[in-house]
Design goal:
Order of helices and strands: EEEEEEEEEEH
Structural class: mainly beta
Distance between the termini: 22 Å
Largest sheet: 5 strands, antiparallel
Strand order of the largest sheet: 4-3-7-1-10
Shape: globular
Radius of gyration: 13 Å
Length: 107
């Protein structure tokens, strides 16, 4: 299942990406793989990276090994203030057709 979230940064930030998925998942930011998670109970995080001011897109592709419904939790956290969760999974995320890329979604 592919989910997208498009968001706007007013100023640049250094962030970490976190993902946990049942059973496995990948998280891309602006088309760049940041996290690959293959064990549901443990969240996996990325190295820090900078996101510039402007529009960005997170893609999460999650799958359940048995083919049953999947679940995931993802977020971006500000490196300089770990209590500042700048993007998190919520009801605004869109489940989309796998053929749609982040470039198409952000237009």
């Amino acid at each position: 299942v592919l989910f997208l979230e498009v968001f706007l940064f007013i100023s640049s930030k250094n962030v970490y990406a976190y993902l946990t998925a049942d059973n496995y998942g990948t998280l891309y930011v602006d088309g760049v793989l940041r996290v690959s998670n293959s064990y549901w109970p443990n969240a996996t995080n990325s190295d820090s990276f900078n996101l510039s001011q402007g529009l960005h897109c997170i893609e999460v592709n999650a799958a359940e090994a048995s083919g049953t419904p999947t679940a995931f939790i993802a977020c971006l956290i500000n490196v300089s203030n770990s209590s500042d969760v700048v993007v998190r999974t919520d009801t605004s995320w869109k489940c989309v057709d796998h053929s749609i890329s982040y470039e198409q979604e952000t237009k």
